[in-house]
Amino acid sequence: DDTGDIMDTNGHGTHCAGTIGAEAGNGIGVAGVSWGVKIMGLKFLGDGGGSTSDAIRAIDYAVSMGVRISSNSWGGGGDSSALLASIQAAADNDHLFITAAGNDGANVDVGDFYPCNYQVANVICVASSDQNNDLSSFSNYGQTKVHIVAPGSRIYSTYPPSNNYAYLSGTSMATPHVSGVAALVLDMVNTLTALELREIILQT
Hints:
The protein is 31% helix and 15% strand. α3 links the parallel β1 (69-72) and β2 (96-100). The strands form 2 sheets. A 4-stranded parallel beta sheet has the order 1-2-3-4, with helices on both faces. A two-stranded antiparallel sheet has the order 5-6. The chain contains 5 helices and 6 strands. The protein is an alpha/beta fold. The longest helix has 18 residues, at 171-188.
């Protein structure tokens, strides 16, 4: 949002970030998936929504700064050739783009939910599972365009203001679980390409 202010006025981003990388072993709150991760917060959505052009700016900036993985707990709206081009350019720069499947309880193989629906080699689209390891009732799904399912129902994580925690549900909460795994694997084998990293996640 061009301010450089890292404070989260909504809570969504903080909750996702906690799932990825909250500190472990301190007896406080929750432990993230990848404890030593570095997170770049890029905000383009607010209480009034956001624009596709700002989403593209965020993606392009992350790629230009050498970010290897992005966790994209957002989506909706129509197809955009410019957004598709940005994700394709990210793929060309060895960037893994992990994104939410959406919360409409719909089959995205026959409907549209972007950026999940973009069939680009660096994209992982994430649906949500519940505590019984079943698909969450709200989660979008699809045999072709959704690639993996991760926990997204009643996820406990960090939440503003400081030192607060909350339960949230959504494919937005599932996505950072996969992003955290990607960061953990890349930390162990930092020579992996984005496509190799994607293959490991989807095949194991």
